[in-house]
Design a protein that fits this description.
Layout lengths: L5 H17 L6 E6 L5 H16 L3 E5 L18 E2 L4 H9 L2 E5 L18 E6 L11 E4 L6 H11 L6 H14 L10 H12 L4 H8 L5 H13 L1 E3 L2 E8 L1 H7 L10 H5 L6 E7 L5 E7 L5 H7 L3 E2 L3 E6 L3 H16 L1
Parallel strand pairs: 1-2, 1-4, 2-3, 4-5, 5-6, 8-9
Antiparallel strand pairs: 7-8, 9-10, 10-12, 11-12
Helix pairs in contact: 1-4, 2-4, 2-5, 4-5, 5-6
The structure holds manganese (II) ion (MN).
Manganese (II) ion binds next to loops.
Length: 339
Amino acid sequence: MGRRTIRSIDMARRSGLKRILQELEPGRRVVLTTHLNSDGDGAGSEAAAAHWLSRRGLHPTIVNPTPFPDMFRFLLAEGMDTWTPADAEGEKALREADVFLVLDTAEPSRLGSVMGRTDGRRVLVLDHHPATSSSIGDVIVCDSDACATGELVFDLIREAGDEVSLPEAEGLYVAIATDTGSFRYANTTTTTHEIAADLLRAGVDPEDMYGRIYAQYTPAGLELVRRALERLRVIDDLPVAWISLRQADLAQTGASKEDLEGIVEYARRIRGVQVALLFRELHDGTTKVSLRSSGDVDVAAVARALGGGGHVKASGAVVPDGLEATEARVLKEIREVLG
Ligand SMILES: [Mn+2]
């Protein structure tokens, strides 16, 4: 891994984007989708792509395996609805689509009930997660040099010869700002900032975006943070900190899944911590673990060992055991990686 060589990487990316553009003829019905429990990158990329495809005379419909996050609805065009396969309208869109554009994942297991609904149609993928042997797609741009899938959607719009409109720019800004931890994580590059500058030129107001993305604590969300801080643990002999939350913590506080976003950052902020973890008990008694690395530990490798996946510095897995057993197992894995 040398320095990022922007031009040569852009050439490889460009040829993939050109092939995707060939599939996006005006008049086509496009289903946009992303991974389970969409984040800012998935939702922001979808919103931006929907605005842009409509502008080009295509007919986009967002059908996600889990509902589009409420906090990012402001990015959608006036009157634009989003669906899941369980909705009659979502079902119809899946049936009638000419082409699928899958954003921010290429993993069949992360597409939930949207997977298996693409029969006979072309599947286009824009993703920045490392490709795996199970990756889907007929035309795939899978570029882990991209800080966010939003970066690839930005390049797609530019490759088409279009200027980015303000609604598109807002979606892309949300995608990039959330996936880079507001331009702080290791995936932040000169390209990230160059694109952000272009998005500001398109009219994005960073203060307004900050308010919409981050200044959103509700009393229930704040109560969840309080509990998370009570549950925050560190151990003396490992640069690891973790938070464990039970089903009851969500139920008793009234917090939603969206309120969990960013909770792991409290563990990451502790001086000397290299790996931050969030363990969450799921309805069926299994445990979801989110892993973040601030050092050299490859948490994607740890997640893969647990049956999950993700990025080198941000990954996740669902472990088919209870909270305590999972904590012990994950800490053992990390202890081995740290040597
Ligand atoms: Mn992403």
